[in-house]
Amino acid sequence: MTSETLEATRLFQHFAKIEMSEEIEKLKEEIKLMNEDRMNLETLLEDELPDYSEKNELHVKKDIFKLEHKLRKLRKKYPRMFVGENMIDVEEEEEEEEEKGCCSSSDNVPCEWQCVRVTCQTLNASGEMR
User: Fold this and answer.
1) How far apart are CA 112 and CA 64, in angstroms?
2) Which terminal Cβ of the chain has fewer Cβ within 10 Å, N or C?
3) pLDDT digits (tens, 9 = 90+) for 74-83
4) Report field, pTM of the whole predicted structure over 0.70
């Protein structure tokens, strides 16, 4: 290899590292916002809706579930990004979901919503009771 080729290789690696670190920062910010959204939704559910109907509760719980699902996907894809208080054992969460026992249906409904579907009447495709 010539010195020009080596220099080009070093420059390429340097810029690849910069791009990766920028991508990681974007993902960290996205995770932070998702955690804030989740906390806001939980606060809304607990504090601001003291006399909410079951329908509103289901919508808020569905939003929380969607955010948790996105976080689990990010944890699987980028496990090293979750350090400290964000660190959760993904395999343990999956085992807990399987133990719930509501995953007998063949449709692609998440386990948690199958449980809700069974106990709280029937939900249509958008999650509303009918």
Assistant:
1) 11
2) C
3) 878 877 766 5
4) no
